[in-house]
Amino acid sequence: MPKLNLHRRDYLTSVLSHLSAEEMQQRLSPDHTTPVRKLPRSPFLTPNSVAKRWQILDNDGAKAQLLDPATQAQMSRYQKNIENFIGTVKLPVGIAGPLRVNGLFAQGDYTVPLATSEAALVASYHRGAQLITQAGGATAMLLNEGVTRTPCFAFADLAHAGQFVAWAVTRYGDFKQVAESTTRHGKLSDISVNIEGNHVYLVFEYLTGDASGQNMVTISTNAVFEYILHNTPVKPEQAYLDGNLSGDKKATAQTLRSVRGKKVTAEVHISPALVKQYLHTTPEQMADFTRMTTVGGTLSGSIGINAHYANALAAFYIACGQDAACVAESAVGITRIEVARNGDLYASVTLPNLMLGTVGGGTSLPSQHACLDLLGLAGSGQSQALAEVCATLCLAGELSIVGAFCAGHFSRAHHKLARG
């Protein structure tokens, strides 16, 4: 028997061996006693409701940290973003840069705020950003935009499903009018059909302006969904607002060839001298490392190939008021590192799933708006530039971490910065 399986068996045995059958049954059975603490029914944010929640929590030390004077003074600014509010969490914010971006929308040097508790992360992105800037900046291009919602319908058989589709494809104009009646900014840009047996999935794709747009497309699609249920001549046996085909907050392969959010690619050419100066390695070593780890990623079943987009995205999203859960989908993408014909290092990233915006959601919260303001990308008209900066930030991180592995510095950097 393989040693790993022995370990798993032994671990489970050690966890369970100290409990008798009666004790295990007692621990794992449902408990129907009344909770000692029960929150007020109203989830809304008012000074009175916040005070009631803290009376129930009865922890002055925690209250002093979470409901500090600055948070109390700005409580009303959080009321559209949270339920059962009790305060705010302070997370360290560092800056990386300057990061030079030569994009269709982003032009110039950006100092990028990153919110994280992981030591060495900001230092790594800072190094990559400086390297890109010294190389003349990265070229970045926004390739596509679109946010999807995918209602699904179940019919008695394939014949009924086909009849429904035949009706639905003649109503695209009506669907567009209904969807856009719910929003000033969203535009229904495409509709496609997927049939699986007697199930039908309608894929609605929207342009959402400068908003990330998840709530916008949900509300718009729900209006179309209700219109369909009231008007279709072929009634479904079951119908749901989303059939899990959109890829919302999960890694999927479909967006590698399409888009969800904003699709951006960025590239940079770096001389061997700069690679040696900043990363202490060579273009050849970095290309060899990338080839070998691409195979490793394939063996692990990775969707896309990258070193650690999630690090940049989580820190960037939290700092700038994006939906952090979207990192699950946004971290899908492709990194390529090669040696160019002239001996320079060529590196590129392509991220088809950047779910971000500069209006709506958490972008208007005090700290998050301040971070967008530091970038010079707060408010309307800035979301495309923000996406290009975000992709270039991911490129900086890929260069830095690959360089660290090639130079043998990865563990040493974490030891030095995390353990002092």
UniProtKB/TrEMBL annotation:
* Record region (Disordered): 23-42
Q: Which UniProt keywords are present, listed alphabetically?
A: NADP, Oxidoreductase
Gene3D superfamilies given in the database record: 3-hydroxy-3-methylglutaryl-coenzyme A Reductase, Chain A, domain 2, Hydroxymethylglutaryl-CoA reductase, class I/II, NAD/NADP-binding domain
**Statement: the UniProt record of this protein carries the keyword Oxidoreductase:** yes
So what EC number does this one have?
Answer: 1.1.1.34
Record carries keyword Oxidoreductase: yes
| Pfam families from the UniProt entry | HMG-CoA_red
Name the family.
Answer: Belongs to the HMG-CoA reductase family.
User: Which protein, by its recorded name, is this?
Assistant: hydroxymethylglutaryl-CoA reductase (NADPH)
What organism is recorded for this protein? Photobacterium atrarenae
